[in-house]
Design goal:
By secondary structure, the protein is of the alpha/beta class. Helices cover 37% and strands 29% of the residues. It has an eight-stranded mixed β-sheet with strand order 7-6-15-16-17-14-18-21. The structure holds 8-demethyl-8-dimethylamino-flavin-adenine-dinucleotide and P-hydroxybenzoic acid.
């Protein structure tokens, strides 16, 4: 027997993109069903982003889920770029009048889950064999299995918010979809530790042994990363080896403040730039990591996902409230213009701050010259600051 369901917008994926879309649509009285191949506790436990742009904070305020963010988030008015131990502060507030908020993706997800659950959202977790179909018809549907039973959801629109490895993007015919990709020849090894951060602000460091990032989740919890080989295994990296490498890359002056301890989370992530075009096919709309990936160096992935959702939710609301499909029609083109600018920034900062195995001595000199230029030029620092705090939505 197949269980049948009906909704206005079926949302595949309950990461930050899917949850925020469900929340913004619910506020406008639009009915949604959300499905995910994982369950809530798994999704909340994924340690990922940590830095929110002001536009992201505004979106979470509009969604009515920003109380804890304002109580517990840390406002940062700058961050440091460091090269072989020399530090240069990017004064976000002075250069742009804006700041960013340090608040973990785990917390954003929890706040959204709490709000959706309190308001009676229909979720299907642990789903399998998800297939979006009839995308070109005015009644598309999503088929899936849960606990050995078949389900089908018919809807007006499908939102593909199922991340880089989801099924939504793959449902767009190959002769329609174009993809653009750069895979970087290294990964990031990240740890969480219950120790105060080495510095009040984030430090992105390029050292001859590789990149390092000092970030945080709170005044007592630090999130640190180092560039590692793509093929490295977690077993290769004891805490002791991590701390030694991290301290070396930060340089002795900064490392003098470093408090080390036992890590309670450790993971390796590959680095990739990726864009899929278009972000709409028939009545399927892609948003977030389902359509694009940035390397984490500029802290843009989650922010880009939220920007997509702001535009997609507005377009869907205009359709249901005003009968206007203009914004739905413009969605892919409008979003992609901004996506490419953010891809450029993330790629540029990644290229500047990492050690590339293939780099010649000339290219290493170019990296150093670019850092020296940024450190000596307000215009160059401002260009970084304006991207870091977030480009306008359009
Ligand atoms: P997600 O979070 O991947 O959620 C997708 C959801 O879809 C589900 N799913 C499916 N559901 C049903 N059927 C299927 N077939 C499905 N396939 C997948 C998955 O289970 C999942 O729940 O995508 P979303 O919502 O678009 O959100 C994107 C963000 O998660 C991502 O861009 C950021 O985490 C990237 N990122 C950062 N972004 C920032 O803005 N600032 C940062 O500081 C930052 N740091 C990071 C990051 C990502 C990292 N990693 C590990 C990738 C640091 C790291 C280390
Ligand atoms: C993090 O805290 O996880 C983080 C911060 C800044 C980045 C990437 C990740 O650019």
């Amino acid at each position: 027997m197949t269980h049948t369901h009906k909704t206005q917008v079926c949302i595949i994926g309950s990461g930050p993109s899917g949850l925020l879309l469900a929340q913004l649509l619910a506020q406008a009285g639009i009915d949604t069903i959300v499905l995910d191949r994982q369950d809530r506790s798994y999704i909340e436990g994924r340690i990922r982003a940590g830095v929110l742009e002001q536009g992201t904070v505004t979106a979470l305020e509009e969604a009515g889920v920003a109380d804890r963010l304002h109580a517990e988030g840390l406002s940062h008015s700058g961050f440091d770029l460091a090269f072989d131990g020399t530090r240069h502060r990017i004064d976000l507030a002075g250069l742009t009048g804006k700041s960013v908020m340090v608040y973990g993706q785990t917390e954003v997800t929890k706040d959204l889950f709490d709000a959706r659950t309190a308001q009676g959202q229909t979720f299907f977790f642990n789903v399998e064999d998800v297939v979006p179909t009839d995308l070109k018809s005015d009644q598309p549907s999503v088929r899936f299995r849960q606990n050995g039973e078949d389900h089908v959801i018919t809807c007006d629109y499908i939102a593909g918010c199922d991340g880089f490895r989801g099924v939504s993007r793959a449902a767009i015919p190959a002769d329609v979809l174009r993809t653009f990709e750069r895979v970087y020849p290294f990964g990031w090894l990240g740890i969480l530790v219950e120790k105060p951060p080495v510095s009040d602000e984030l430090i992105y460091a390029n050292h001859a042994r590789g990149f390092a990032l000092a970030s945080m989740r709170s005044e007592t919890r630090s999130r640190y990363y180092i560039q590692c080989d793509v093929d490295d295994k977690l077993a290769d990296w004891s805490d002791g080896r991590f701390w030694e490498e991290f301290a070396t890359r930060l340089g002795p002056d900064t490392a003098a403040n470093l408090q080390t301890g036992a890590s309670f989370e450790k993971s390796i992530a590959p680095l990739r730039s990726f864009v899929a075009e278009p972000m709409r096919y028939g009545n399927l709309f892609l948003a977030g990591d389902a359509a694009h990936i940035v390397p984490p160096t500029g802290a843009k992935g989650l922010n880009l996902a939220v920007a997509d959702i702001r535009l997609l939710s507005r377009a869907l609301i205009a359709h249901y409230r005003e009968g206007s499909d203009h914004h739905l029609g413009a969605y892919s083109e409008t979003v992609l213009r901004r996506v490419w600018k953010v891809e450029r920034f993330s790629w540029q900062l990644s290229t500047l701050m990492h050690q590339f195995p293939e780099n010649s001595p000339f290219e290493k000199k170019m990296q150093r010259a670019e850092f020296d230029y940024i450190a000596s030029s307000e215009a160059a620092s401002k260009a970084i600051a304006e991207n870091y705090v977030g480009l306008p939505l359009e």
